[in-house]
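Handout for the seminar on molecular recognition.
Each group receives one record of this type.
Step one: identify the two inputs.
Step two: read the structure output and locate the region that could contact NDP.
Step three: write two sentences on what you found, then compare them with the reference statements printed after the record.
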Amino acid sequence: MAAPQRDYARLFDLTGRKAVVTGGSRGIGKALAEALAAQGADVAIVVRSTLGLAEELVAGFNAGGGDSFAIQADVSDPADVARLAAEVESRWGRCDILVNNAGIVLPGPAEDFPLDAWRQTMSVNLDGVFLVSQALGRLMIRQKKGSIINIGSMSGRIVNWPFRHAAYNVSKAGLHMLTKCLATEWAEHGIRVNALAPGYIMTELTEEVLREHPDVVENHWAKGAVMNRIGSVDELAGSVVYLASDAASFTTGEIHTVDGGLTLR
Ligand code: NDP
């Protein structure tokens, strides 16, 4: 007699799940929001200044029905985050998936790096993740289930010399540890907390560096990875769907690396 077939595709089905993606208007966040929506989730896209882009995106998600929405909120502002959580609760009554993707890079040599720029980096990349996780984590604790995915970086693991952005590296290393702390504290509430640590991915953020250092892809970024190239936003989509879904039901506190082997050597 043939072994009973398990429906593995259903493990990745997110139909009816409610997902919040910060910084989902462009770049990596946009690709991750699209991937979650394609798997059936309703998605709230949170942006600071690009609300028009986010609104266009959710209009596409809702074209065949659904309840995705766009909202302006600065993740580093506690009042904005409280408003975001209130909107999610009144609209959906729950939050199943949170992707903390919003992040900034402010480069500069350590000896001249302004304290304001240091604090700004920490306030978006660390305070923002803490605030949004806390606000939506309370909803997840109440429903006894949830998956949080923090977008970390290989910069949280290695110093990506010759670039000088110590504040960014420190913020991402802190984000990896915050991931492990929240995973530990909230496991008893049925909440899984993981990080996705990409290598170099082509987005507006990286294009800005390229304008100043046009040779960098060839001579540094691609050569650093054992796969000898940089990545595309679409190459992160499967990982976020996996971590958000029941396929990852026994995975928590993990720093999931997608970097073409950049941090191997
Ligand atoms: P982009 O600069 O292309 O996009 C950043 C997004 O974050 C935008 O949607 C932006 O919206 C939003 N955002 C920024 N600050 C805030 C804020 N205070 N509140 C709410 N939203 C905000 O970045 P990427 O797509 O390249 O990066 C996304 C994440 O991935 C970041 O956390 C980054 O550190 C990480 N990462 C990126 C890598 C890469 O190679 N690109 C590599 C490793 C990690 P708005 O413009 O409206 O403010």
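Reference statements: Strands lie at 18-22, 42-47, 69-72, 97-100, 146-151, 191-198, 255-258. Residues 22-23, 25-29, 46-50, 74-76, 101-104, 124, 128, 151, 153, 198, 200-201, 203-206 surround NDP (CB under 6 Å).
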